[in-house]
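Field reference: sequence -> structure
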Amino acid sequence: MSQFDLPIDRLRTYRSTSVEPEDFDAFWTKTLDEARAHELDARFEPVATGLATVEVYDVTFAGFGGQPVKGWFVLPAGTSEPLPVVVEFLGYGGGRGLPHTHLLWASAGFAHFVMDTRGQGSGWATGDTSDPVGSAPAFPGFMTKGIEDPYTYYYRRLFTDAVRAVEAARSHPLVDATRTAVTGVSQGGGITLAVSGLVRNLVAVAPDVPFLCDFPRATTITDRTPYREIGNYLKTHRGRVQQARNTLAYFDGVHFAARATAPALFSTALEDLTCPPSTVFAAFNAYANTDKEIEVYDFNDHEGGDSFQQAAQLGWLPGRLRG
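Structure field:
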């Protein structure tokens, strides 16, 4: 696959046509206030993993609607003083998996909180969190569940879980809550952007090839799933295009980015058909904090920088967390 999107000079100035709802802030304030009416009830249970360099805890906390959400909490072995924490969100279809797959940030000397993804966790890594909320008829996948209204849309629940995950991570006595970073790849990157606009006092944000950005362009420029789920839904539900766009506007990473206050390190790949580079640049260019960087991988698809991007994060994030 060759580069298919806008040339790099136009990407660096591209702006999304996504229209921000007038009640965007009121919608999210109401949503989070309702979630916080439930006790967070964050529980950390030690897990025997056979790993000598880290300590692992099985986490349960109350997410959207007070519903239980799982996670892993990983600490460097022998931690006795509060550490900065990296909160990580996961890619589409995956769950928290097994704890030994989450060693990077504890190995770098930080606390690491991995949030499970409600209702997913069966595509490429196992999950342990159900989504007990139903929806009207939807195309298979998660992109159109409840899309008829922003209050019923699946990502309202997932983004709320993510905000509560940060609160759960910060509640642990071995976490320095004033030094919190959020990160994730693909869907995890889109969740990261949502959190960047909804949570104050983050010290760093690292969305990697982020999904869920610039829906007007994303849903028309690529035939690849998951975005194509929306097109397939609208192919059947003729006449609901504007209704779907109105809902998606409340969940567009572009609008969360416009509210972000923390420094950020993005990444994109110029041959990425899953999260086209223009959609990533739409969020990057809208990102409110001018202390921001973006790594561009010219000849990669959705794998992006992969371990090279992890190396870039290892060079960037510690200075933010320890500074």
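Note: DSSP finds eleven helices and nine strands in the chain.
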